[in-house]
Design goal:
Blueprint: E1 5-23, E2 26-40, E3 45-50, H1 57-65, H2 77-92, H3 98-116, H4 120-123, E4 131-137, E5 141-142, H5 147-165, E6 167-171, H6 181-195, E7 200-204, H7 211-222, E8 226-230, H8 238-247, E9 251-254, H9 260-269, E10 274-275, H10 284-297, H11 310-322, E11 329-332, H12 338-341, E12 354-356, H13 369-372
Parallel strand pairs: 4-6, 4-11, 6-7, 7-8, 8-9, 9-10
Antiparallel strand pairs: 1-2, 1-5, 2-3, 4-12
Helix pairs in contact: 1-3, 2-3, 3-10, 5-6, 6-7, 7-8, 8-9, 9-10
Length: 378
């Protein structure tokens, strides 16, 4: 008799921060995570992670998705994914709860790898690389600082991260603090001066602008040797992505807020130079793999968005192992106690900025359940 899914559980975690930090859309006061644990009849456990707040997503996993999983063979992962998406579409009509499906899908792939004694990368067709270069995400806005002090604190952090990894991503969208796009450009200019001409610099607006403002900011960024301009406009403004890609001599990146259908439209319309699915948000490894295949047919490289615990990092590394071209790993260096608490593996970049991709079965992690108990909120 094949191994069957016996239980589907969630763990809601939260870690308050000593100081909040901000990006264009909001302040972050604590770091949270919703984990999914699926156990089979033989005791094998698979782990996944969902993007966003636990409220709503937790109940979607346990009350809506779990009853359709119990008794199933977890190795039927892509079949299960398609059924869950269809079931959710029929039930919700206007929306599919992709963050909830993401956590389930990742846990099923982790289970599938463990049951077959193979890494997820092997199950997806094989590893193209054993390690990947990381770039530093961080450089968020500080609470209570005036503009000059913001510049000083952020550029100092960027210089430190550039020295460590050789590549950084700047946050703009100072409208959160009451400033404007010219102040955003000045921040990027100061970061470029601080990190020097040889460090790689990306810029993330977190959809702070309309298309016209994004075009003006993008033209200023062209002279600062920016590698890509990320989320310049809201994710719903797919036409804006296309117009900006046509207008600017600057790579346009995005996707962390997009659904699989949104990626299909953006890629078909020619709206992206860099595709950035977040596997904890877009539907998991199954959806991410299909997006990667579509991107490859249009010549668009994939650099996944990553902003979570060690589970999110490990999942993204398995995915990155399979991607063509030369992907990067987004490595969040902003405060997050959960980043190292959830898994025994920290995935900290080596001195040269490289992160080794695990080759153990599944996504290649060991979850530290005793440690994470202190962060549980459920």
């Amino acid at each position: 008799m094949p191994t069957a899914i016996e239980s589907v559980e969630t763990m809601s975690l939260a870690a308050p921060l000593d100081e909040p930090f901000g990006y264009a859309q909001a302040w972050v006061e604590d770091r949270t995570a919703l984990l999914v644990r699926i156990t089979t009849s033989d005791g094998t456990v698979g782990w996944g992670e969902c993007w966003g707040p636990a409220a709503g997503t937790r109940e979607t996993v346990t009350d809506f998705l779990a009853p359709r999983l119990v008794g199933r063979d977890p190795r039927d992962v892509t079949v299960i994914y398609d059924e869950l998406v269809h079931h959710a579409r029929a039930a919700y009509q206007s929306v599919v709860p992709y963050p909830a499906i993401s956590g389930v899908d990742i846990a099923l792939w982790d289970l599938c790898g463990k049951l077959r004694d193979a890494s997820v990368a092997e199950l997806l067709g094989g590893r193209r690389r054993e390690e990947v270069h990381a770039y530093a995400t961080g450089h968020y806005f500080r609470h209570g600082l005036d503009l000059e002090d913001q510049y000083g604190a952020i550029t100092a952090e960027a210089a430190e991260n550039a020295a460590a990894l050789g590549a950084v991503k700047a946050k703009i969208g100072l409208s959160l603090l009451g400033y404007g796009p010219d102040d955003d450009v000045e921040l990027v200019r100061r970061i470029r001066d601080a990190i020097g001409p040889d460090a790689m610099l990306m810029v993330d607006a977190n959809y702070a602008y309309d298309t016209g403002t994004a075009r003006r900011v993008g033209r200023a960024l062209e002279s600062l040797d920016v590698t890509w301009f990320e989320e310049p406009v809201p994710p719903t403004d797919e036409a804006g992505y296309v117009r900006l890609r046509d207008a600017l001599d600057l790579r346009i990146a995005g996707g962390e807020c997009h659904t699989p259908a949104g990626f299909d439209r953006l890629l078909a319309a020619g709206g992206l130079d860099i595709a950035q699915p977040d596997l904890c948000n877009v539907g998991g490894i199954t959806a991410g793999t299909r997006i990667g295949q579509h991107a490859a047919t249009t010549g668009v490289p994939v650099v996944p968005h990553v902003w979570g615990t060690g589970i999110a990092l490990a999942t993204s590394l398995q995915y990155i192992a399979t991607l063509p071209s030369e992907p990067w790993l987004e490595f969040d260096r902003s405060p997050n106690p959960l980043r190292t608490a959830v898994t025994q593996e920290s995935f900290a970049p080596a001195a040269a900025g490289q992160v080794t991709i695990p080759d153990r079965p599944g996504i290649g992690i060991t979850v530290d359940e005793p440690t994470i108990e202190q962060f549980r909120t459920d």
